[in-house]
Amino acid sequence: MLHSVQGEQRAEELMRSCGEQLIEEGRQQGLTRGRAEYVLRMLTARGVEVDETARQRILPGVLDDFAQ
Q: Is the pLDDT of residue 47 over 90?
């Protein structure tokens, strides 16, 4: 019986750590995207034209960099 309780506790710890890792990855991804959007806004505010093609290259590129 002790082994089954320990096994359940270990499983809960693993699920919790996996969940925490996924939450942190999502948080980091959100921060990264927010920074990219901020850069785009600053460029626009300073009169730099950022066309849709450039915008589409910047935002997914940020996510690709984050994944690596």
A: yes
